[in-house]
Amino acid sequence: MNLVIVESPAKAKTIEKILGKDYIVRSSYGHVRDLAKDGYKNTGVEVDNGYIPHYVVPDAKKKSVAELKKLVKTHDKIILATDEDREGEAISWHLKEVLNLPDKRVSRITFTEITPPAIMAAMEHPRTIDIDLVNAQQARRVLDRLFGFELSGLLWKKVRGKLSAGRVQS
């Protein structure tokens, strides 16, 4: 049996039907880790040590991560089939990390449509996690935390509460 992990539960059901009885498909329900909100000046980032991010599994994700950990123990091959963008790549990397998956048991697939030909083509061309895309997502997330949070706090004090400074405004 092979375990395929996707981001969305709706996708999981459809993909499981396409792949058939040799595969079980489950959802991560999106991101499984985020930057810690305590420590390191409440940023989750060690600014003084090379901007090292520190991740935690949020309480809301602990149940789904525990379920995935159980499934990983009973499946030989794990296929990470999260979205093709940098967020999807980061989710795959976080899954690999939090589930303690060795490289030899993991493959990464991507597809742009949920059709039998697209899914089967992706299965025929697995790859490894693209760490450059992961690093791009991490850089964006760290910048959001360091600058977005700081600017939002400043806006709350100087202009009006509940204002948010996103990446574009920052």
Could you walk me through the main structural features you see in this protein, from its secondary elements to its overall organization?
- The chain is of the alpha/beta class.
- The protein is elongated and about 60 Å long.
- The longest helix has 28 residues, at 131-158.
- The strands form three sheets. A four-stranded parallel β-sheet has the order 2-1-7-8, sandwiched between helices. The chain has a two-stranded antiparallel sheet with strand order 3-6. Strands 4-5 form a two-stranded antiparallel sheet.
- The chain contains five helices and eight strands, in the order βαβββββαβαβαα.
- α3 (86-98) crosses α5 (131-158).
- 43% of the residues lie in helices and 15% in strands.
- The mean pLDDT is 90.
- A hairpin with a 5-residue loop joins β4 and β5.
At a glance:
With 170 residues, this protein is an alpha/beta fold. It has helices spanning 9-19, 62-73, 86-98, 116-124, 131-158; strands at residues 2-6, 23-27, 34-35, 45-46, 52-53, 55-56, 77-80, 106-108.
Low-confidence sequence ranges: none
Cα distance spanning the termini: 47 Å
Q: Please, how many helices?
A: 5
Order of helices and strands: EHEEEEEHEHEHH
Could you say which overall geometry the principal axes of the C-alpha atoms support? Answer: elongated
**Strand proportion:** 5-15%
Main sheet strand line-up? 2-1-7-8
How much helical structure, as a percent, in the residues? 40-55%
Mean pLDDT: 90
Helix/strand-derived class?
alpha/beta
Q: Please give the number of β-strands.
A: 8
- Using the CA coordinates, give the radius of gyration: 18 Å
